[in-house]
Amino acid sequence: MAIHLDGRPADTAVRGIIIMNVFVAIGALVSGDGMLMLMWPYWIQSVVIGYYAMRRIQKLERFATDNFKINGAAVDPTPQTRRKVWTFFLLHYGFFHLVYFMFLGAFSAAGVMGEVMATADAPSPWAPFWYGATLVGFLVSHGESHREHVAADLRGRPNIGTLMFVPYIRIVPMHLTIIFGAMLGGTVGLLLFASLKTAADVAMHKVEHRMLQGARA
């Protein structure tokens, strides 16, 4: 693991995030399925981010609960608090993505996304393999950052409330670009959308990285 001169863990995950975004954009262009081939992989990426966030909370050994409350009451840094936090996060974050999944599935089945965002008449037959490949890619690219953060968490005493909140800060700009990108079409629109999404992804990763460093401090 790379370390800065001041002892902070180096942020080495940006390269992987950029590579995966470029990989997804190229796949969308080659397939001819346009935005359809972008939105599903980005949904997968969001789920991967949530999974690693939950695992970080589960792996906490020492953590702070300053200014953090459950049902309006202050809590102590105990295993019970840790379990409540990651369980709530799983249910809340998971429900949001379940609803998102249902909308994407309905739009895809109805052909709405194809009419607006695709250049091909039907999704590519290799789409399931493509989605599987993007899942593996995002697991690897975000897994590198996850390992660095967990190692630093174990050396410090991060605030569990911050760890639960940060993933939402990370994905909201990403999903806003997805929503507005759905209004675009054609190759130019796809490239513009992919570029904006990549920029938002990297920027919010940097914000997350700094917030978590502050939480550990």
UniProtKB/TrEMBL annotation:
Membrane-spanning segments: 12-30, 36-54, 90-113, 174-196
InterPro entries listed in its UniProt record: DUF6498 (IPR045466)
Keyword terms, alphabetized: Membrane, Transmembrane, Transmembrane helix
Superkingdom field: Bacteria
One Pfam family of this chain: DUF6498
Coiled-coil residue spans: none
Descriptive protein name: DUF6498-containing protein
Species for this entry: Pseudogemmatithrix spongiicola
